[in-house]
Design goal:
Strand content: 5-15%
Shape: elongated
Number of domains: 2
Order of helices and strands: HHHHHHHHHHEHEEHHEE
Strand order of the largest sheet: 1-2-3-5-4
Number of strands: 5
Structural class: alpha+beta
CATH architecture of the largest domain: 2-Layer Sandwich
CATH topology of the largest domain: Heat Shock Protein 90
Distance between the termini: 67 Å
Radius of gyration: 38 Å
Largest sheet: 5 strands, mixed
CATH class of the largest domain: Alpha Beta
CATH superfamily of the largest domain: Histidine kinase-like ATPase, C-terminal domain
Helix content: 55-70%
């Protein structure tokens, strides 16, 4: 067991990951060379200056060079190249991080810090590669190139190959350590900051909520239109021979409802494809049109409106229209031609929607809480901070919604 572990430790620098680390670091050292050459220009004019002044000039040039490297690392293109190179040669957590098109300022300076560390570490490894590795090879070959026949106990001939192998192994471990350090720092410095990650999560959550809302809109709108089309077509079939005029009007209502459903479907699908064109959604100001379309299908709807519908906030009015539409859809499915009651009350900062329809005998027990449409209404009401009460009340199915948008703020 100990032999296997020792062998694994000794062979660690020759593993492929170490060579990838070495390539990554040498690339950083190569990128560092132009900065070094530029820094050598002002340092070359210090030959005639005194010692303290030389030290000050060298320190200023060094700091200016580091600042220039860090500023270069803040560029978006440099950050993308750095992340791509780190993914291919370092691996680790950086593989799971996407490159943002326009990162915030904080993230750019963090990327500049990592770029500077990469170039400095690469400069060290590059310098050791062209100096220490040839020296280590020369020491390993010393017995073959400098053998003088002496067999003294202190003859350095026997020690030189050991020193050379030790230098090569130490250099391998140094590359592995620096590469592992950069691999650990890459996700933290090249990746988004905590604030950026939180903002991204919020955008994803908002997008999912919006898509969920669009799905509800599609269900409510198209489902309502198809229910109306079914009732209108059935009424036209029944009255075709008895009352052709009524059947003709019902078929016209079928056509209009189908067109409305197709328009709503195209609108929602366009939003899901992230198209830029937007259409105005219906609000409670179109309540008369909604009721008239349902009456054309043969439904008997008694409407009572109290208050000014145009006083509602646009967001509340739009959501309320969809909730009324869904409530009427459910009512028409289960009223079986009997009257449906709808009451809309608008207060200074409140809205109350009430819909009632008779239930066939036994249906209250089979549908105690409503279906998917009721779930959609509950989600809409919850998003507005209101309350909803849905269920059977005796032999009637009741929907009672109360929204206070001032209290919800």
């Amino acid at each position: 067991m100990k032999t296997t572990r020792l062998r694994a430790i000794l062979l660690a620098p020759t593993r492929p990951v170490t060579w990838r680390h070495w390539v990554y670091l040498v690339l950083g050292g190569a990128v560092m060379l132009p900065y070094v050459f530029l820094a050598m220009t002002p340092v070359g004019f210090t030959t005639d200056l005194q010692g303290a002044v030389v030290v000050a000039v060298v320190a200023i040039v060094f700091l200016a060079t580091i600042a220039a490297v860090a500023a270069t690392g803040t560029l978006s293109a440099v950050r993308k190249v750095e992340m791509f190179t780190a993914r291919e040669l370092l691996g680790g957590g950086i593989r799971e991080i996407a490159v943002p098109d326009s990162p915030p300022r904080e993230d750019r300076w963090r990327a500049g810090t990592y770029f500077t560390m990469h170039l400095l570490a690469g400069g060290v490894v590059g310098t050791l590669t062209i100096t220490m590795i040839p020296l280590a090879i020369a020491w390993v070959l010393y017995p073959l190139t400098s053998w003088d026949g002496q067999m003294g106990t202190v003859d350095p001939t026997y020690a030189m190959p050991i020193y050379g192998i030790g230098l090569i192994v130490g250099f391998g471990y140094l590359c592995a350590a620096l590469g592992a350090l950069l691999a650990r720092l890459a996700p933290r410095l090249l990746g988004p900051s905590q604030a950026a990650r939180i903002a991204q999560m919020e955008r994803v959550a908002d997008d999912l909520a919006e898509r969920n809302r669009l799905a509800r809109d599609l269900h409510d709108s198209v489902g309502h239109s198809l229910s109306v089309v079914t009732l209108q077509a059935a009424a036209a079939r029944r009255m075709w021979s008895k009352n052709p005029d009524f059947a003709y009007e019902a078929l016209g209502a079928v056509e209009q409802s189908a067109r409305t459903a197709l328009a709503d479907l195209d609108h929602v699908l366009g939003l899901l494809r992230e198209e830029t064109t937007e259409e105005a959604s219906a609000t409670l100001l179109q309540l008369d049109t909604l009721v008239r379309r349902n009456r054309a299908a043969g439904a008997t709807i008694e409407v009572d409106v109290a208050g000014a519908l145009d006083a509602l906030p646009i967001g509340i009015s739009r959501e309320a229209y969809l909730m009324v539409q869904e409530a009427l859809t459910n009512a028409m499915r289960h009223a079986n031609g009997r009257p449906v009651g709808l009451r809309v009350s608008v207060g200074p900062h409140t809205l109350r929607l009430q819909a009632r329809n008779p239930l066939p005998e036994g249906e209250a027990q089979s549908r105690p809480s409503g279906g998917r449409g009721v779930r959609g209404m509950r989600e809409r009401v919850a998003s507005l901070g209101g309350t909803i009460d849905v269920g059977a009340d005796g032999d009637e199915w009741c929907v009672d919604i109360h929204i206070d948008w001032e209290a919800a703020k």
